[in-house]
Amino acid sequence: MRTNVRHGSCGFLVVGPLLLVALVISSPGPLPANPLDNYGFGSKWVAMGGAVTAIVDDVGAMYYNPAGLVRAESVQVSIGYFFADPTLKINGYEIGEDAVSGINAGFVTPPMNFGTIKIGSREIGPIKMGGGGGLHIPDKRVARTLAIPYDQPTFVLYGARNQRMVLMTPFSFQIFPWLQVGAMVSMHMRTSGGPEFVIRENRPENRGLWSEGSISTTQRPSFFASAGVEAQPMKNLHLGFCYRGKNEVVYKIPMKVHIEPLHISPELPFPLLGESLIDMNTVVYSFFAPEQFSFGAGYDFGKRCTLTLDLTLERWSAFRQPAPEGATLFSGGIAVLVPQNPNYPLPPPDFHDIVTPAVGVEVRPFLYPHWELVFRGGYRYKPSPAPEATGWNNFLANDTHIFSGGLGLNLVQVEDTLKVIRGPVRLDVHVQYFWLTEGRALKENPVADAYGDMVFGGSVINAGATLTLEF
Amino acid sequence: MYLTKRSPALVFLLATALGCGLLGDPGGEPQGNRNLPGSGVGRFVKQDFYCDAEFVQPFVPGLEDPVDESWMTGEPCMVLQDGVIRVWVERRKRSNPGQAWVSSIHTGVLRVGRGTECRDVDARLDGPLREISFGADPGPQAGAPTVLRSEGLYRMWFTQGDGEAIRYAYAREADCTPADCSTWTLHPEPALVPNQDWERGTVGSPSVVYTAVHHLPGELVRPGTPVYLMYYDGDVYQDRAIGHAWSLDGMTWIKADPQGNEAEASTPAPAARGVQPVLRADQTNWEFWYPDPSYGSRYVGTVGQPHVIVHRTPLRTILLMYYTGNLAGKLERPVKPPPPQGRDASIGIAYSEDGVIWEKAPSYSERDVIALEINPIMAEKLAIVIDLDKPEESVNVFSTFFIINEAAPAVLELVPNQFFIMLWEQTDHVNLNVAPGLAVPPAEESGYPGSSGIGFAYAGNIPF
């Protein structure tokens, strides 16, 4: 497919990114994290076990490795849908975890060619720049956060408690024909602030005054980065590296209640309870996704087969207690009546870093002038990052085997039929099966919490399809 | 920028992508919190059987004590018998606090099902209570029964007198059906008498399990063979604690403690008198009563009225003990005005993997425990503490006017690791002093009993 930079396309390439920047500033979309970490982005890559850091070269590059974007040679528009249905059990009973589903969509612009640059006697280039945009939207809700009691058993990796829209705005450069780099900056909105109340007694001297309250919140941006490199040092050999920054949203929710002096009885000339203040502060850490370092390799066995391998380091040791943690201080008259309960800190999760290997294969046995049929398969192993739940924490995480497969149907040379679309038209489908091997939680003291000993496990089935058009 | 033929397609695709995600079914979605397991700790939810009263009235209809009677119903026990829950209680009274109790044992059937009106689960006595007969007279006082079914017989152990002894009786399966289980045969000799120093002449409130979870050595009992384990009160009216005995046949018992001391249980003057309790009061925020002027100078906490069940988790089998903290003797009926002295009894839990070494659930007493308190699992925990001499986090109320006592628990695990029900003895001074005026219509018309009876609660996932 030849690069064809036309005048109209240049205008689109200038205005489009500006519009996307405006969208980024206004939207709360975080970096690709929980839903994409589990269920991928783009059926083609999901079917290959997500072991595609070295070879991804379409809309999927926004998540798997932004460096691959610049390798797209035309405008691509991609839209897909997936549905992931978990069956999670504790002690043989299904706990009713919500399904995860949604739309993954995006577009890639053909790269702008800046030609070569001469540095001394050396020529670098041709230098190209590519970009695009992608998003994931849950189809049930735009966002959801569920704050649950800290000791409630929860499947940390596959629970659907936290769901949100994901917006991706990458850019990518080709330095040499065999070397590409890319990056993405995305933004969260952090929210802090809460209500403040004043409680007044209904007394003659308060005539005209009321008990009242106000709410003051502040939203500040947090920026998260992703970056990657792809290289083709030899014919048929691909290497890649991608870094994804840690993802976390911190909610800080203070609340103050001012209580003016209370007389209780109208006849009393003096207050029974002096002026008081209840000062509460709650912090919630949500939407965590670990910092990730992905190393990938791929090899093309001619035109018919590609084999890939990925190793990813996931820094789960940075996972913080997601349950709301609060401190309440009493001062003034109420402090005499109500004991100042000690605010014991919640126990830390004590997660550890993990390495997840993955392999993928694509086989292309049917390559014809008008259509192509492609078979894909993959496997990923994800060990549990959580310690055994022997104490007060009940984070349930299983060693998981993830099997995936899929088909791709490419309709080539469709321009004569579909005038607008230059082609090819690609339809990819995928299926993923997560096998959560049995986990055990043998409590040090089985009466120290409401749940006791547990065995837990289950499965998740994810299926979806993606349609990609090239213009 | 020029519009091209591909522009509408792009706009359409982008609009479709943005438009989706705003559809959906708000609320009611699964949250991953169904069928969560239960350890037996709770939270036990008291069921309200008199919806027209302001406060929760957990007294089981048929097991409450009418305000105009002097009898009290207490020390419940439950057995699941051919799909039917049979309940055993004592009925007792005494004219004055200084007099001995007069008591007898009664039995009936409890029906438990989906609740109506203001409660999730309904529990009612199905038919009247029947007083049981032993064939031989055990004396004027027989109470605090514990019953189990093993080796082809129904077996009962109960308190005789005011702590004189623990007796044993049995019934053939043909004589103990869901319809009627009131004919028993009394064993002629006591099963257990107070013969250890710490018991100070009184024993009572036995609880017996038949289980392979025990501490007996393999030379004595082949591993995996069940034996009878008993837990009972000693020093019932003073520094109450819980003792332990074991038996191979349910009739001949040996007292034992974690230090390996043993003594014959039915011999009035055994060779050894140093066998110690297996559970003592040490959780200072609820097992002790602080208005007692001797606090700080002598040991005043109490634990007693044990109820032990065998609990099978997916990974092991353990024993759970539910017990009363902060109660000397038995509960008295609330009176107006409240007496100047009174104790606020609550219910706690402990577990054991061998029947002789027990560990309690944590409470606020343990300052270095980074966890929410568990013990007591059944109590009222008022936020307001006026008595500044009381240790911090104490659940004991500051005035006898507000005492609500929970004591003498009985627990049944109806669905393993999922659903537990509890009966207990409750006396309620708030009900007597405050609640009658808050009932709609007032208590005398609405019929709720007021202040004394057997309460009902459940914990876990309702199976019906």
Rg of chain A to the nearest angstrom?
27 Å
Strand content of chain A: over 45%
What is the total tally of β strands of chain B? 22
Helix content of chain A: under 10%
Number of helices of chain A: 5
Walk me through the topology.
The complex is a heterodimer of chains A (471) and B (464).
Chain A: H1 7-26, H2 34-39, H3 43-47, H4 61-64, E1 76-90, E2 93-94, E3 100-113, E4 117-119, E5 122-124, E6 128-138, E7 143-144, E8 154-155, E9 163-164, E10 166-168, E11 170-176, E12 179-199, E13 212-234, E14 237-244, E15 247-259, E16 276-289, E17 291-301, E18 305-315, E19 325-332, H5 334-337, E20 354-367, E21 371-382, E22 395-396, E23 400-411, E24 425-441, E25 454-470
Parallel strand pairs in A: 8-22, 12-15
Antiparallel strand pairs in A: 1-2, 1-3, 1-25, 3-6, 4-5, 6-10, 6-11, 7-9, 11-12, 12-13, 13-14, 14-17, 15-16, 16-19, 17-18, 18-20, 20-21, 21-23, 23-24, 24-25
Chain B: H1 6-19, E1 45-46, E2 59-64, E3 72-81, E4 84-93, E5 102-114, E6 121-131, E7 142-150, E8 153-160, E9 165-172, E10 185-186, E11 203-211, E12 227-234, E13 241-247, E14 254-256, E15 262-264, E16 303-312, E17 317-325, E18 346-352, E19 358-360, E20 404-415, E21 419-428, H2 429-433, H3 443-446, E22 452-460
Antiparallel strand pairs in B: 1-22, 2-22, 3-4, 4-5, 5-6, 7-8, 8-9, 9-10, 11-12, 12-13, 13-14, 14-15, 16-17, 17-18, 18-19, 20-21, 21-22
Description:
The complex is a heterodimer of chains A (471) and B (464). With 471 residues, chain A is mainly beta. Chain A contains 5 helices and 25 strands. In chain A, strands 1-3-6-11-12-13-14-17-18-20-21-23-24-25 form a 14-stranded antiparallel barrel. In chain A, strands 4-5 form a two-stranded antiparallel sheet. In chain A, strands 7-9 form a two-stranded antiparallel sheet. The N and C termini of chain A lie close together (10 Å). Helix content of chain B is 5%, strand content 36%. In chain B, strands 1, 2, 20, 21 and 22 form a 5-stranded antiparallel sheet that branches. In chain B, strands 11-12-13-14-15 form a 5-stranded antiparallel sheet, with no helix packed on it. Chain B has a 4-stranded antiparallel sheet with strand order 3-4-5-6, with no helix packed on it. Mean pLDDT of chain B is 84; it is low at 1-5 and 17-25. The interface between A and B is large, with 68 and 60 residues.
